[in-house]
Request: fold
Amino acid sequence: MKLLFLIIIFTLTMSILLSGPVYAHHVDGHSEDEPRRFHVKQGEDLEEYMYLYDDRYAKSFDGPPHLWNSGILLTRIGDINKVSGSYEAEFWFFMEIMEEDDPTDFTLNPPEFSFVNGKDILYESESFEPHYYESKVSGVFFNNMDFSQFPYETLILKFTVEPSGTDKTIDQIRFILDPVSGIDNSAVVPGWQISEFILSVEDHHYDNEDDSTYVWSWLNAEYLVERSIIGSTVKYLLPVSIITGLSLTVFLLRGNYTPRIYLTAPLLLSLVYLHQGALDDIPSVGYMTIFDKVMTINYALFVNAILSIVLQMRVHNDDSASLAKELKINNIMKYFIPVIIIIGIIYIITTS
Reply:
Protein backbone atom coordinates (compact mmCIF):
# COMPACT_ATOMS: atom_id res chain seq x y z
CA MET A 1 0.00 0.00 0.00
CA LYS A 2 2.87 2.37 0.76
CA LEU A 3 4.34 1.75 -2.68
CA LEU A 4 1.03 2.35 -4.38
CA PHE A 5 0.57 5.52 -2.34
CA LEU A 6 3.96 6.82 -3.55
CA ILE A 7 3.01 6.18 -7.17
CA ILE A 8 -0.32 8.00 -6.78
CA ILE A 9 1.38 10.98 -5.13
CA PHE A 10 3.97 11.03 -7.92
CA THR A 11 1.27 11.04 -10.62
CA LEU A 12 -0.73 13.83 -8.97
CA THR A 13 2.41 15.92 -8.36
CA MET A 14 3.42 15.68 -12.02
CA SER A 15 -0.03 16.69 -13.24
CA ILE A 16 -0.05 19.77 -11.00
CA LEU A 17 3.53 20.94 -11.50
CA LEU A 18 3.62 20.40 -15.24
CA SER A 19 0.23 21.73 -16.23
CA GLY A 20 1.72 25.03 -17.48
CA PRO A 21 1.87 28.68 -16.48
CA VAL A 22 -1.00 31.13 -16.20
CA TYR A 23 -0.84 34.48 -17.95
CA ALA A 24 -2.39 37.75 -16.99
CA HIS A 25 -4.65 39.94 -19.09
CA HIS A 26 -2.63 42.81 -20.52
CA VAL A 27 -1.86 45.08 -23.46
CA ASP A 28 1.70 45.57 -24.66
CA GLY A 29 3.49 48.31 -26.53
CA HIS A 30 2.23 51.32 -28.40
CA SER A 31 3.06 52.76 -31.79
CA GLU A 32 1.65 56.14 -32.73
CA ASP A 33 -0.82 55.90 -29.82
CA GLU A 34 -2.06 52.48 -30.98
CA PRO A 35 -1.61 49.28 -28.93
CA ARG A 36 0.45 46.62 -30.66
CA ARG A 37 -0.71 43.61 -28.65
CA PHE A 38 -3.80 42.35 -26.81
CA HIS A 39 -3.52 39.29 -24.55
CA VAL A 40 -6.53 37.80 -22.75
CA LYS A 41 -7.26 34.56 -20.95
CA GLN A 42 -10.21 32.25 -21.44
CA GLY A 43 -13.52 33.82 -20.40
CA GLU A 44 -12.24 37.39 -20.77
CA ASP A 45 -12.87 39.84 -23.58
CA LEU A 46 -11.50 43.17 -24.82
CA GLU A 47 -14.57 45.22 -23.97
CA GLU A 48 -12.57 47.62 -21.80
CA TYR A 49 -10.65 48.71 -24.89
CA MET A 50 -13.72 49.75 -26.83
CA TYR A 51 -12.77 53.35 -26.06
CA LEU A 52 -10.32 53.01 -28.93
CA TYR A 53 -13.27 53.27 -31.32
CA ASP A 54 -14.12 56.78 -30.12
CA ASP A 55 -10.50 57.88 -30.40
CA ARG A 56 -10.18 56.49 -33.92
CA TYR A 57 -13.48 57.92 -35.18
CA ALA A 58 -12.39 61.34 -33.92
CA LYS A 59 -9.24 61.35 -36.05
CA SER A 60 -8.92 62.77 -39.54
CA PHE A 61 -7.09 61.19 -42.41
CA ASP A 62 -3.73 62.89 -42.88
CA GLY A 63 -2.33 60.83 -45.73
CA PRO A 64 -0.76 57.38 -45.94
CA PRO A 65 -0.53 55.00 -44.27
CA HIS A 66 -4.18 53.97 -44.40
CA LEU A 67 -5.15 52.43 -41.06
CA TRP A 68 -7.06 49.15 -41.31
CA ASN A 69 -8.83 48.50 -38.02
CA SER A 70 -8.81 44.70 -38.27
CA GLY A 71 -9.68 41.65 -36.23
CA ILE A 72 -10.48 37.95 -36.21
CA LEU A 73 -13.35 36.17 -34.47
CA LEU A 74 -12.78 32.41 -34.24
CA THR A 75 -15.79 30.14 -34.82
CA ARG A 76 -14.32 26.67 -35.31
CA ILE A 77 -11.11 24.66 -35.11
CA GLY A 78 -11.23 21.42 -37.07
CA ASP A 79 -8.66 18.66 -37.35
CA ILE A 80 -5.26 19.41 -35.79
CA ASN A 81 -2.53 17.44 -37.55
CA LYS A 82 0.36 17.49 -35.11
CA VAL A 83 2.70 15.63 -37.47
CA SER A 84 2.55 18.30 -40.19
CA GLY A 85 1.84 21.20 -37.82
CA SER A 86 -1.37 22.04 -39.67
CA TYR A 87 -4.90 22.75 -38.49
CA GLU A 88 -8.25 23.48 -40.08
CA ALA A 89 -10.00 26.64 -38.94
CA GLU A 90 -12.98 28.86 -39.63
CA PHE A 91 -13.34 32.46 -38.49
CA TRP A 92 -14.67 35.90 -39.33
CA PHE A 93 -12.12 38.36 -40.63
CA PHE A 94 -13.11 42.02 -40.72
CA MET A 95 -11.54 45.41 -41.28
CA GLU A 96 -12.77 48.98 -41.01
CA ILE A 97 -11.37 52.36 -41.93
CA MET A 98 -12.47 54.70 -39.16
CA GLU A 99 -11.38 58.09 -40.50
CA GLU A 100 -14.42 59.37 -42.37
CA ASP A 101 -12.39 61.45 -44.82
CA ASP A 102 -10.15 58.53 -45.89
CA PRO A 103 -10.60 58.34 -49.72
CA THR A 104 -10.51 54.52 -49.70
CA ASP A 105 -13.68 52.85 -51.01
CA PHE A 106 -13.81 49.07 -50.59
CA THR A 107 -16.88 48.84 -52.88
CA LEU A 108 -14.79 50.20 -55.76
CA ASN A 109 -11.41 48.76 -54.80
CA PRO A 110 -11.84 45.64 -52.62
CA PRO A 111 -9.10 45.21 -50.03
CA GLU A 112 -6.29 42.90 -51.13
CA PHE A 113 -4.74 40.70 -48.49
CA SER A 114 -3.50 37.15 -47.96
CA PHE A 115 -3.01 34.70 -45.12
CA VAL A 116 0.72 34.11 -44.99
CA ASN A 117 0.55 30.75 -43.16
CA GLY A 118 -2.54 29.34 -44.88
CA LYS A 119 -3.54 27.36 -47.96
CA ASP A 120 -6.80 26.36 -49.65
CA ILE A 121 -8.37 29.53 -48.28
CA LEU A 122 -12.08 29.95 -48.92
CA TYR A 123 -13.91 33.29 -48.50
CA GLU A 124 -17.65 33.16 -47.87
CA SER A 125 -20.38 35.67 -46.96
CA GLU A 126 -18.22 38.59 -48.08
CA SER A 127 -19.64 42.02 -47.30
CA PHE A 128 -18.38 45.29 -48.80
CA GLU A 129 -19.08 48.82 -47.68
CA PRO A 130 -17.05 51.93 -48.51
CA HIS A 131 -15.09 51.71 -45.26
CA TYR A 132 -15.90 48.21 -44.06
CA TYR A 133 -15.20 44.64 -45.18
CA GLU A 134 -15.89 41.27 -43.61
CA SER A 135 -15.73 37.66 -44.71
CA LYS A 136 -16.06 34.18 -43.25
CA VAL A 137 -12.69 32.54 -43.83
CA SER A 138 -11.91 28.84 -43.77
CA GLY A 139 -8.81 26.90 -44.73
CA VAL A 140 -5.77 24.98 -43.56
CA PHE A 141 -3.12 26.86 -41.60
CA PHE A 142 0.37 26.05 -40.35
CA ASN A 143 2.52 26.92 -37.37
CA ASN A 144 5.44 25.43 -35.45
CA MET A 145 4.33 23.22 -32.57
CA ASP A 146 6.32 22.56 -29.41
CA PHE A 147 5.75 19.17 -27.78
CA SER A 148 8.35 19.42 -25.01
CA GLN A 149 5.52 19.61 -22.43
CA PHE A 150 3.59 16.61 -23.79
CA PRO A 151 1.09 15.42 -22.53
CA TYR A 152 0.43 18.88 -21.09
CA GLU A 153 1.49 20.74 -24.22
CA THR A 154 -0.03 24.03 -25.31
CA LEU A 155 -0.39 24.49 -29.07
CA ILE A 156 -0.38 27.94 -30.66
CA LEU A 157 -2.84 28.14 -33.55
CA LYS A 158 -1.78 31.22 -35.47
CA PHE A 159 -3.34 33.22 -38.31
CA THR A 160 -1.23 35.87 -40.04
CA VAL A 161 -2.69 38.42 -42.47
CA GLU A 162 -0.65 40.59 -44.84
CA PRO A 163 -1.75 43.21 -47.38
CA SER A 164 -1.24 41.97 -50.94
CA GLY A 165 0.54 43.88 -53.69
CA THR A 166 4.07 45.15 -54.17
CA ASP A 167 3.07 48.70 -53.21
CA LYS A 168 1.22 47.77 -50.00
CA THR A 169 4.16 48.36 -47.66
CA ILE A 170 3.74 49.63 -44.14
CA ASP A 171 4.06 53.17 -45.49
CA GLN A 172 0.78 52.61 -47.34
CA ILE A 173 -1.20 50.12 -45.26
CA ARG A 174 -0.95 49.59 -41.51
CA PHE A 175 -3.05 47.21 -39.42
CA ILE A 176 -4.42 48.36 -36.08
CA LEU A 177 -6.11 46.10 -33.52
CA ASP A 178 -9.87 45.75 -33.26
CA PRO A 179 -11.02 44.93 -29.70
CA VAL A 180 -14.06 43.05 -31.04
CA SER A 181 -11.68 40.21 -31.89
CA GLY A 182 -11.48 36.98 -29.93
CA ILE A 183 -13.49 33.77 -29.72
CA ASP A 184 -17.10 33.37 -30.75
CA ASN A 185 -19.39 31.96 -28.06
CA SER A 186 -20.24 29.06 -30.34
CA ALA A 187 -16.60 28.23 -31.15
CA VAL A 188 -15.88 24.48 -31.33
CA VAL A 189 -12.45 22.94 -30.66
CA PRO A 190 -13.00 19.16 -30.26
CA GLY A 191 -10.71 17.59 -27.67
CA TRP A 192 -9.05 20.87 -26.72
CA GLN A 193 -9.84 24.01 -24.76
CA ILE A 194 -8.78 27.53 -25.69
CA SER A 195 -6.86 29.01 -22.77
CA GLU A 196 -5.63 32.32 -24.20
CA PHE A 197 -5.98 34.68 -27.13
CA ILE A 198 -3.31 37.06 -28.43
CA LEU A 199 -3.91 39.68 -31.13
CA SER A 200 -0.90 41.65 -32.30
CA VAL A 201 0.56 43.68 -35.15
CA GLU A 202 4.05 43.12 -36.46
CA ASP A 203 6.39 45.00 -38.77
CA HIS A 204 7.66 42.24 -41.04
CA HIS A 205 10.83 42.82 -43.06
CA TYR A 206 11.54 41.40 -46.49
CA ASP A 207 15.10 41.57 -47.85
CA ASN A 208 15.66 42.17 -51.55
CA GLU A 209 18.55 41.09 -53.72
CA ASP A 210 19.96 44.63 -53.76
CA ASP A 211 20.20 44.52 -49.92
CA SER A 212 17.26 46.89 -49.55
CA THR A 213 14.44 46.07 -47.15
CA TYR A 214 10.69 46.37 -47.50
CA VAL A 215 8.44 46.35 -44.46
CA TRP A 216 4.89 45.02 -44.44
CA SER A 217 2.33 45.31 -41.67
CA TRP A 218 1.21 41.92 -40.34
CA LEU A 219 -1.83 41.13 -38.22
CA ASN A 220 -1.34 38.05 -36.02
CA ALA A 221 -4.10 36.23 -34.17
CA GLU A 222 -2.89 33.44 -31.87
CA TYR A 223 -5.14 31.00 -30.04
CA LEU A 224 -3.47 28.89 -27.35
CA VAL A 225 -5.20 25.52 -26.99
CA GLU A 226 -4.44 22.86 -24.42
CA ARG A 227 -5.71 19.53 -23.18
CA SER A 228 -7.64 18.95 -20.00
CA ILE A 229 -5.15 18.37 -17.17
CA ILE A 230 -7.28 15.65 -15.63
CA GLY A 231 -7.89 14.03 -19.01
CA SER A 232 -4.19 13.99 -19.91
CA THR A 233 -3.25 12.58 -16.52
CA VAL A 234 -5.82 9.78 -16.69
CA LYS A 235 -5.04 8.94 -20.32
CA TYR A 236 -1.25 8.99 -20.23
CA LEU A 237 0.21 9.00 -16.71
CA LEU A 238 -2.24 6.91 -14.73
CA PRO A 239 -1.89 3.68 -16.79
CA VAL A 240 1.92 3.68 -16.67
CA SER A 241 1.86 4.51 -12.96
CA ILE A 242 -0.46 1.57 -12.27
CA ILE A 243 1.80 -0.79 -14.20
CA THR A 244 4.88 0.43 -12.34
CA GLY A 245 3.04 0.20 -9.04
CA LEU A 246 2.13 -3.42 -9.75
CA SER A 247 5.76 -4.21 -10.60
CA LEU A 248 6.86 -2.89 -7.23
CA THR A 249 4.77 -5.51 -5.45
CA VAL A 250 7.73 -7.87 -6.01
CA PHE A 251 9.26 -6.27 -2.92
CA LEU A 252 6.38 -7.69 -0.88
CA LEU A 253 7.18 -11.25 -1.94
CA ARG A 254 9.96 -13.23 -0.31
CA GLY A 255 11.58 -15.97 -2.34
CA ASN A 256 9.27 -17.24 -5.06
CA TYR A 257 11.62 -15.92 -7.70
CA THR A 258 9.90 -17.51 -10.66
CA PRO A 259 6.52 -15.81 -9.98
CA ARG A 260 8.34 -12.53 -9.32
CA ILE A 261 10.12 -12.71 -12.69
CA TYR A 262 6.88 -13.67 -14.42
CA LEU A 263 5.28 -10.62 -12.81
CA THR A 264 7.90 -8.03 -13.83
CA ALA A 265 8.70 -9.22 -17.38
CA PRO A 266 5.23 -8.82 -18.99
CA LEU A 267 4.61 -5.62 -17.05
CA LEU A 268 7.84 -4.15 -18.46
CA LEU A 269 6.74 -5.07 -21.98
CA SER A 270 3.36 -3.43 -21.31
CA LEU A 271 5.12 -0.29 -20.10
CA VAL A 272 7.22 -0.07 -23.27
CA TYR A 273 4.12 -0.64 -25.39
CA LEU A 274 2.20 2.16 -23.64
CA HIS A 275 5.19 4.48 -24.02
CA GLN A 276 5.41 3.92 -27.76
CA GLY A 277 1.65 4.12 -28.15
CA ALA A 278 1.51 7.49 -26.41
CA LEU A 279 4.31 8.90 -28.57
CA ASP A 280 2.32 7.98 -31.68
CA ASP A 281 0.06 10.92 -30.76
CA ILE A 282 2.84 13.40 -31.58
CA PRO A 283 5.42 13.67 -34.38
CA SER A 284 8.90 12.26 -33.96
CA VAL A 285 10.93 14.93 -32.15
CA GLY A 286 14.61 15.19 -31.33
CA TYR A 287 14.13 16.15 -27.69
CA MET A 288 12.69 14.56 -24.57
CA THR A 289 9.14 15.41 -23.69
CA ILE A 290 7.70 15.53 -20.18
CA PHE A 291 6.22 12.10 -20.83
CA ASP A 292 9.63 10.70 -21.83
CA LYS A 293 11.12 11.98 -18.59
CA VAL A 294 8.30 10.47 -16.53
CA MET A 295 8.81 7.18 -18.36
CA THR A 296 12.52 7.32 -17.54
CA ILE A 297 11.57 7.34 -13.86
CA ASN A 298 9.27 4.36 -14.40
CA TYR A 299 12.02 2.46 -16.22
CA ALA A 300 14.43 3.21 -13.37
CA LEU A 301 11.92 1.80 -10.88
CA PHE A 302 11.60 -1.34 -13.00
CA VAL A 303 15.39 -1.74 -13.18
CA ASN A 304 15.56 -1.35 -9.42
CA ALA A 305 12.93 -4.08 -8.94
CA ILE A 306 14.60 -6.49 -11.38
CA LEU A 307 18.06 -5.82 -9.94
CA SER A 308 16.73 -6.61 -6.48
CA ILE A 309 15.50 -10.00 -7.69
CA VAL A 310 18.81 -10.76 -9.41
CA LEU A 311 20.88 -9.89 -6.33
CA GLN A 312 18.66 -11.97 -4.10
CA MET A 313 18.89 -14.94 -6.45
CA ARG A 314 22.69 -14.77 -6.31
CA VAL A 315 22.78 -15.26 -2.53
CA HIS A 316 19.81 -17.59 -2.46
CA ASN A 317 20.18 -20.80 -0.48
CA ASP A 318 17.91 -22.73 1.82
CA ASP A 319 19.72 -21.87 5.05
CA SER A 320 18.71 -19.09 7.42
CA ALA A 321 21.82 -17.01 6.72
CA SER A 322 20.98 -16.65 3.04
CA LEU A 323 17.38 -15.81 3.89
CA ALA A 324 18.63 -12.98 6.08
CA LYS A 325 20.82 -11.68 3.24
CA GLU A 326 17.92 -11.84 0.82
CA LEU A 327 15.73 -9.88 3.21
CA LYS A 328 18.46 -7.28 3.70
CA ILE A 329 18.92 -6.82 -0.05
CA ASN A 330 15.16 -6.57 -0.51
CA ASN A 331 14.89 -3.86 2.18
CA ILE A 332 17.85 -1.88 0.84
CA MET A 333 16.55 -1.89 -2.74
CA LYS A 334 13.09 -0.94 -1.49
CA TYR A 335 14.50 2.26 0.02
CA PHE A 336 15.73 3.27 -3.44
CA ILE A 337 12.13 3.69 -4.64
CA PRO A 338 11.41 7.10 -3.01
CA VAL A 339 14.96 8.22 -3.85
CA ILE A 340 14.42 7.50 -7.55
CA ILE A 341 11.04 9.25 -7.54
CA ILE A 342 12.35 12.37 -5.75
CA ILE A 343 15.41 12.65 -8.00
CA GLY A 344 13.17 12.16 -11.04
CA ILE A 345 10.77 14.91 -9.97
CA ILE A 346 13.66 17.32 -9.36
CA TYR A 347 15.12 16.46 -12.77
CA ILE A 348 11.82 17.06 -14.55
CA ILE A 349 11.18 20.37 -12.80
CA THR A 350 14.70 21.71 -13.40
CA THR A 351 14.77 20.73 -17.08
CA SER A 352 11.25 21.79 -18.10
About this structure: The first helix runs from residue 2 to 17. Confidence is low (pLDDT under 50) at residues 19-31. The helical segments are 2-17, 51-57, 229-247, 257-279, 290-314, 320-351.
